Amino acid sequence: MTFLSRFTAFSSLKLLVLSVLMAVSLPIMAMTLQQAMAALPNAKTQGLVGEQLNGYLGVINANSEADTIAKLINDARRAEYTRLAKDNNIAVADVEALAGQKAIERTQRGHFILLEGKWVQKR
Question: What's one Pfam family the UniProt record gives for this protein (predicted)?
Fold first, then answer.
């Protein structure tokens, strides 16, 4: 076996091992909804995410953690709003608006809310 063929075989093996490690580690690195819910208070305190009148979280200072938290929680909220709308025979938009209003009301002082297109800290 020549040096070049051994090098190519070794490189292929390294690539295969690296691919397997990535495939196994991705689910471990992924954030779950429960982890996102646990991280939400801290993300709000840090000013990464805030509540919107449409019933969903908005990302204020984008980073991968804020984006993931908002996506996971918003997906869960959307599913719940859809279920509530169906169960009560009302429009999803009505559920979203009511949920948004309640979320804004319940937002702690110092956390961010989106009002008239601007992120402001609730007083």
Answer: DUF1318
